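subagent[fold] <- orchestrator: predict structure for attached chain, return tokens only, no commentary.
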Amino acid sequence: MVAKDYNHRKAGGGEGAREPDPLLIFHLALDQEMCVAQRGLARVPLNDPAAVAAIVSTLRRVHGDNIAQTLLADGVSLAVLIDAAFSLPVSNSDAVRMIARALDSGDFSVTPELGPLWRVRYIYEDRRASMHVVDMEVLTPGRTFASIEISLLLSV
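subagent[fold] -> orchestrator:
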């Protein structure tokens, strides 16, 4: 496999992030202007509604509503998200962009804490000159995390 690095800076999250309520009810209006997460009657605005809607939609299409809600409430591994995105009838590059955008959005708490400086390494298919991504790793100054080690939790 071939790996390439792309630098990212963490967008938001971290210190001020609240611990999610296990009874979180997700209400996403897929209208681009009104995409919010809803906990009871309180609505929480999202930093990047389109990125969150894309992730929620992907998980719902592949796993169904109930499992998608559980994955978002309990944390979904980056590996599961990658598998779900790559199983959809969208281009590989669109699926990769969707995942990268979700990582950058600040709407998801990422575990383990990556710190302020990290980058994504895309793992490409083992073919000469292939641009087909098959996995991702996250590199920090101190460690490299495989996609299976990273969990994303909708932080509302």
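orchestrator: received. Logging for downstream: Residues 2-154 form one domain. Confidence is low (pLDDT under 50) at residues 1-35.
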